[in-house]
Design goal:
mainly alpha; about 60 residues; about 90% helix
Length: about 60
């Protein structure tokens, strides 16, 4: 009985650790995507003309 309780507790702890690892990996992936999106937007600002510059060229 005590062995079964210990095994159950170990299995639950192992599942919790796996869940935490997956959550950490998911957060790392989200952070990476956010950084890439911000970098893309900053690059786009450098390359694309602003709305006022677009009006000047179209006139």
């Amino acid at each position: 009985m005590a062995v079964q309780m210990r095994d159950d507790a170990l299995a639950m702890a192992a599942r919790h650790l796996v869940q935490q690892i997956r959550l950490s990996e998911f957060k790392d992936e989200l952070n990476h995507r956010l950084v890439m999106n911000v970098a893309f937007l900053e690059l786009e600002e450098l390359v694309m003309p602003s709305p006022s510059e677009r009006q000047e060229t179209s006139e």
